[in-house]
């Protein structure tokens, strides 16, 4: 009897203690539901350091405790509090006979859901027996792109070993999940993506840019296996077809990897080369260095990577050095048929043309080899010309364009070599891209490296831009305008407002001359190159006219 009395006293004391805790947790609640509010995951909720707050106004007051097992809503409150804090160990302690992978099942659910926040709203607790109860609740999860995901579940409780415990099944996570099931995120594939123009439009047919775009993909600048189009959350139960419980589909499917290419400019360049076997057109935005078009019939990305003698188009660089050293477009110079380098070789004009005394502007427009050779010998030196070429990108790394260098020029060993370099022969070589950037520098007044073709690619460590002195930029614009008004490109079908420079370059391997024409119209700068095409006026200028007139 004494032992029984002692046991009864212990039971009563325990009941009083449990009731006191339960009363503290639910104190101040007057309405029929409670919100367990979680801040965005990993951050404290408003109102204190905890991730969860118990708002006033929740489930009904607990009925008086009539047994030593305590209160089911106390256990439920503790369980929900731990859940919104992702405290799976605390949750597990409140569960009757939890599975070994209890925490893993919750983590896998969260990894699939990727919820930005979780809110749990609790309804009225229902006693289903003397030692069993059930409490409905609603989960609200903020999902990326899809907004709020809301669904109802219920939490069952029962007395186990004189304690109220959660009777847990996977349906607590989501009512559709059965034992052995899980929530799975699926991401449909759009298939391999191709680079597209700056506005998302597919490139024109036979654009001549395929090799460059393929190179982007191969270098990993753009994805090669496709990108996900929306997503879906599915409940995958053993032996049953998957059931979608939430999905998101974007209004617009991704159409491809954006490049800097402009559809209209690319189409005009491609069609201008129709019927031409070995040629290329490169167009850039002069003010930024963005590549707007590359139509290449040379193969192997030659327009960016293969160097050719630029011929008289390089006189643009030589003229810049002369303007930097005291000459002006109106300075008088001699354009004789032949210039004899003192104690060295003679330099001839094309077809030994003799134009006598002319201005520097006229000598440039008529492409006088003798004028530029003589002026370079008398007023410049090898170091001066090399430095000026470097200011236009020659010898400057150009990895952004996919080439090791834009162009190259060795320091001349003697006056013969210096004279040849002055009009783009000798050791001078350049890619078509390089010469387009030279024309762009004249128009904008600043040499800029080419930007990467992939519009959103990291720029990396690009060479710095090089501003031209104002008198040099203005002088070069005057010289290039004269070429199309009364020089070697005059009388062609070029549209108004085009300025440029023709070039006819000896192959060096005994083949027919290469043809060049570089220039600009507004903010569009370009280079036309025809391998073994003959003269710049005869082969390159007509292609440039077709290109520009199509814009």
From TrEMBL:
What GO biological process terms does the UniProt entry carry, in alphabetical order? cell wall organization; response to antibiotic
Q: Which domain of life is it from?
A: Bacteria
Penicillin-binding protein transpeptidase domain location = 280-548
**InterPro entries attached here?**
Beta-lactam/transpept, Beta-lactam/transpept-like, MecA_N, NTF2-like_dom_sf, PCN-bd_Tpept
Q: Which GO terms describe its molecular function?
A: penicillin binding; peptidoglycan L,D-transpeptidase activity
- Every copy of the NTF2-like N-terminal transpeptidase domain together lies at 71-179
Q: Which Pfam families match?
A: MecA_N, Transpeptidase
Cellular component terms per the entry's GO annotation: plasma membrane
Q: What is this protein called?
A: Penicillin-binding protein
Please name the source species.
Microbispora bryophytorum
Q: Lineage of the source organism?
A: Bacteria, Bacillati, Actinomycetota, Actinomycetes, Streptosporangiales
């Amino acid at each position: 009897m004494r032992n029984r009395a002692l046991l009864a006293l212990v039971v009563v004391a325990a009941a009083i203690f449990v009731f006191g805790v339960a009363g503290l947790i639910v104190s101040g609640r007057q309405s029929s539901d409670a919100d367990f509010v979680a801040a965005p995951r990993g951050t404290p909720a408003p109102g204190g350091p905890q991730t969860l707050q118990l708002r006033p106004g929740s489930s009904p007051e607990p009925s008086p405790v009539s047994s030593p097992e305590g209160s089911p809503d106390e256990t439920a409150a503790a369980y929900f509090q731990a859940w919104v804090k992702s405290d799976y160990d605390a949750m597990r302690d409140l569960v009757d006979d939890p599975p070994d992978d209890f925490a893993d099942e919750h983590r896998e659910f969260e990894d699939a859901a990727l919820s930005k926040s979780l809110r749990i709203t609790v309804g009225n607790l229902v006693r289903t027996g003397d030692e069993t109860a059930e409490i409905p609740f609603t989960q609200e999860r903020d999902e990326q792109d899809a907004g709020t995901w809301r669904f109802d579940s219920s939490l069952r409780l029962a007395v186990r070993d004189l304690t109220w415990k959660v009777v847990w099944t996977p349906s607590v996570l989501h009512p559709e999940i059965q034992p052995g099931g899980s929530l799975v995120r699926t991401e449909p594939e759009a298939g391999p993506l191709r680079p597209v123009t700056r506005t998302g439009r597919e490139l024109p047919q036979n654009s001549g840019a395929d090799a460059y775009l393929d190179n982007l993909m191969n270098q990993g600048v753009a994805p090669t296996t496709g990108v996900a189009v929306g997503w879906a959350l599915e409940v995958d139960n053993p032996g049953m077809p998957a059931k979608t419980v939430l999905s998101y589909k974007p209004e617009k499917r991704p159409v491809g990897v954006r490049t800097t290419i402009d559809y209209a400019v690319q189409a005009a360049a491609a069609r201008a080369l129709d019927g031409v076997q070995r040629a290329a057109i490169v167009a850039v935005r002069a003010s930024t260095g963005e590549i707007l078009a590359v139509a290449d019939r040379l193969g192997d990305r030659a327009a960016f990577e293969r160097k050719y003698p630029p011929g008289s188009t390089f006189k643009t660089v030589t003229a810049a050095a002369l303007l930097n050293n005291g000459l002006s477009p109106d300075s008088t110079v001699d354009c004789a048929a032949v210039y004899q380098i003192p104690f060295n070789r003679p330099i001839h004009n094309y077809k030994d043309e003799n134009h006598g005394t002319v201005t520097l502007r006229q000598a440039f427009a008529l492409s006088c080899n003798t004028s530029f050779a003589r002026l370079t010998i008398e007023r410049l030196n090898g170091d001066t010309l090399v430095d000026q070429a470097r200011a236009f990108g020659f010898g400057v790394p150009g990895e952004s364009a996919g080439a090791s260098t834009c162009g190259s020029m060795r320091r001349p060993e003697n006056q013969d070599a210096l004279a040849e370099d002055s009009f783009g022969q000798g050791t001078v070589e350049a890619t078509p891209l390089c010469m387009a950037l030279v024309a762009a520098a004249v128009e904008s007044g600043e040499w800029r490296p080419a930007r990467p073709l992939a519009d959103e690619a990291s720029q990396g460590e690009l060479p710095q831009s090089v501003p031209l002195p104002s008198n040099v930029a203005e002088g070069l614009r005057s010289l290039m305008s004269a070429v199309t008004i009364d020089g070697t490109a005059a009388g062609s079908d070029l549209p108004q407002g085009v300025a440029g420079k023709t070039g006819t370059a000896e192959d060096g391997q005994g083949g027919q001359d290469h043809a060049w024409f570089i220039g600009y119209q507004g903010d569009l700068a370009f280079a036309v190159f025809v391998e073994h095409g003959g003269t710049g006026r005869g082969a390159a200028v007509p292609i440039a006219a077709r290109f520009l007139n199509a814009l």
